[in-house]
Amino acid sequence: MVVERGLASTRLAKATLSETFALKVGLDSTTCRKGCSHCCSYPVAISLWEGLTLYEGLKADGLWTTDLRLELERHSRLTFGTAPEIWLMAAIPCPLLVSNLCTAHEHRPFRCRVTASSRDPALCRAVHFHALTFEDNQREDTEFREVEERAARASRQYVRGMSERVPLSTAVLIGHRVVEELITLEEIPLTLLRLLGGGTR
Amino acid sequence: MVCQRRFPREHCTIFELSPAEEALLIKRKARVPEEFVYCHYCWNIIKDPEAGPRLMRDTAERQMLQLGVAPQRAREISTRYFDRLIQLQRQRNQRMH
Fold this sequence. Notes:
The complex is a heterodimer of chains A (201) and B (97). Chain A has 201 residues and is mostly helical. Chain A has eight helices and four strands. In chain A, the strands form two sheets. Chain A has a two-stranded antiparallel ribbon. Chain A has a two-stranded antiparallel ribbon with strand order 2-3. In chain A, a hairpin with a 2-residue loop joins strand 2 (97-98) and strand 3 (101-102). In chain A, helix 1 runs antiparallel to helix 6, helix 2 crosses helix 7 (168-179) and helix 3 crosses helix 7. Chain A is globular. Chain B is mainly alpha-helical. The model of chain B has no long low-confidence stretch (mean pLDDT 89). In chain B, strands 1-2 form a two-stranded antiparallel ribbon. Chain B is built from four helices and two strands; from the N terminus they run E-H-E-H-H-H. The A-B interface holds A 77-78, 80-83, 85-87, 89-92, 126-128, 198-201 and B 3-5, 7-8, 10-11, 39-42, 44-45, 48, 51-52, 54-55, 58-59, 61-62, 65, 74.
């Protein structure tokens, strides 16, 4: 029940704020096109709640396979704890990206929804990375985090550590463990600590 | 520390240059660091057969762009550098098997 309520809060926050962002930016004014995937190698950290919703979406669409799980584990090993600058320059593609297309586009995290280019898409390659290439979506991101946390608190299932931002792959793997009841919500901080134990992995 | 973050030294991978490598840097009038310290996370990337060469390729391209090299030229050179790294990696793997 706790998990279901948390998922509902995150879904609502994501839907509402994504729509607000789309209206503000105007989808026609972005230069993003299907098949362009430079931003799919950027560092994307999402909340554990979002990891849960993403896992549920992948499972519902029949996309949760052993191969995907192994790919997520590899991605998580490379990115968890890694400095964003190093992650960016190593151009580590999102494990959900196949042939330059997002396999989970419908369920993609808020961070991905609000990343858009308004200039030449070629400038989105990490080597050209410059804040001016992108719409300033920092404010939307903070707003999303606040709404997400507020919604979770209001429905009395605020669980410490769930709004922690971790790499997308780590969040989905934790989502899998929670939804499949391999770990409880209370065990998440410990699981993260184990993952963060630098040098011991 | 390559990523400039605080990280316990016991969890780092540390390299010292060989005399030959040091001599090469001196010859090229480059700064000779005492050691190269990689944190656990950076080292994970560097030792990865795919992410490591990509990091080196993109870092080289970015530096060239910052130094004013034409974008097309910078891309060509960094791609050649990347291909060479992959080739060396294959040769090393073949020797090991």
